[in-house]
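Could someone model iron/sulfur cluster with this protein?
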Amino acid sequence: SIPIHPVSQQTRSTCPYCGTGCGVLIGSVGGQIVSVQGDPEHPANFGRLCTKGSTLHLTAAASVTQQTRLLRPLHRAQRGGEAQPIAWDAAMAMAAERFADVIRRHGPQAVGFYGSGQLLTEDYYVLNKLVKGLVGTNNLDTNSRLCMSSAVAGYKATLGSDAPPACYEDFDHAETLFIVGANTAWAHPILFRRIEDARAARPSQKLIVADPRRTETADMADLYLPIRPGSDVALFHGLLHIMLAENLVDHGYIARHTQGFEALQAVVAAHTPAAVAETCGIPVADLLQAARWMGGHTPTLSLYCQGLNQSSRGTDKNAALINLHLATGQIGKPGAGPFSLTGQPNAMGGREVGGMANLLSAHRDLGNAQHREEVAALWGVPEVPAQPGLTAVEMFEAAARGELKALWIACTNPAQSMPDQATVRRALERAEFVVVQEAFATTATCDYADLLLPATTWGEKDGTVTNSERRISRVRPAVPPAGEARHDWAIFTELGRRLEALLPERVAAYRPGVGTLFPYAAPESVWLEHRESTRGRDLDITGLSYALLDTAGPQQWPLPEGGGSHGQQRLYADGRFPTADGRAKFAAVAFVPPKEAADAEYPFSLNTGRLRDQWHGMSRTGTLGRLFGHVSEPAVDVHPDDMQRLGLTDGDLVRVRSRRGEVLIPALTSGAQMPGQVHIAMHWGSEFLSGRDAGGERLQGVNALTQPAFCPTSKQPELKHAAVAIEPVALP
Ligand code: SF4
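Reply:
Sure, complex below.
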């Protein structure tokens, strides 16, 4: 794009939207961002940007002109009252005192912290240390729980570690690409461009897409599998059944590098092509074709995202797909591997620092006593608590029951994005004290805050993020913070120091020489501590530095000390896995259908997902009219037969009802839906998509309808499936 203004300064940074992690060049003049271009040297995008990324400078400007930024701390003396300005010092004193008071009265388990996959790695690290090292609870979870916790659990259950083994360059080497549960064309547009390029350069490459919706991604497929919602495990077992029958597995690889294949064979025996065709709604001939393209010795790369993850069986779905790669030996070599795509820009960084309720620093596990001891030693605290923390849904359910007294929410909008909104709103109302640390004043969650703390955002922030292919990129500030906004890591650092003063008994237990857990003056000092925590771990980055990122550009982990100046493209090339015996584990999981089946009262299966040009709750993208050019208003997408049966034409208003609430929304037919299935985009909240809970309380957005059921292993909620009814609404 051609800058409107002459650029006096150009800053190399990273796009803050999806997990592709594109590099950007930010142009600024006199402290104002005036342009953005794709960074031609960034190995994720090589100069390209999608519509969201290429308008970052415009949304940055719009958020200022439309006054949607939160520019100074605000205090609400009474719930529902007007928030009044308060000085930073007084705001932080109040926040620390209220949290310390709850901890003194009810213990550390009575507070909860809820963050975001959009926090930088440095922000995440300080928050994790604050909650688990100082406060003494593991009640720290983030919206990444809604995004990729099933991918984490799936990798760990099979490969022994949360490490995506492939890289973007593998698109070019694959003979078969299998995209399942992902609309890459919309959710990761620049990756989709790279896939288009790969297909153009390699005409023999086959693309298989399995999705309940006929998306733009599915339209490009050589073979489209219109899978019934939630039946992924049956599909993957069925494909393995065929591969076994047709000798398309690699018995040598299985014998040398895996364990547990016999148990899996016993499970997949019942998944005959006929049975799977019935369960999944896919013709037998297409199942055979898919298995033949994916099996054998030519490289196969699987790409997957929320369609597998956001499920009450998310871990099983991930593991069953990884089974296919282990059975065929399609992992650890060019063009092959199970490659989970991350939704958010730094979901991976959050995983690396262990910034979730069940994780610890550098891919350590909270449930592992030795790992807890190692992290306690690194931090200089007597212990890391063993009691599991509350995950996202559990945290808000506990607060709704009155068990969590104080909530700290940073860089996310649970009052729109969490499932079962009625419970989340009750939680926010019932908590004694709610802090919202945010860049934008317009989120629904801000309305529930007792204290609002202004945070910096893209263009102002400084630190690192990690994208889907394990690549660490620098995020650099181009302009000073807007208004009185402060960096997230700095806010957590100050909260930590104030809590140390208010909870001296905890400081007294620190190991000798540890004066404060929060000695940080800059993000680099945080990152160096994080780096040290990775020493000897699978994600070892002790050979990396901010300086090397400046000179050699973004790098993939691992990059251990003495490992040269470039990270590792692929993992498991030698067939050794980070398990006790070095072998990967097959997962003999059973197929279990979605939690809430459609029935006579709620006959439709509701799916939710992203649009191409919007991001999450629209706090940034919703400020720019241009980004509504693709899709201008919310709608429920319905199959033409169902429209006809309900007596609807495009644009008619309908009431979509679930057991938890309802929304009023226009109906339309895009051609993507199967009969009996409907779809609503996740982005609209606020006044755009009004609804009510079962008790008549006003709610907004599609999550008035969604259910809180979650995967028993990953605790990721089933946002891709809820049973709903649709009724025409007669207008006066
Ligand atoms: Fe940003 Fe993702 Fe678009 Fe790249 S593909 S420009 S990271 S939104």
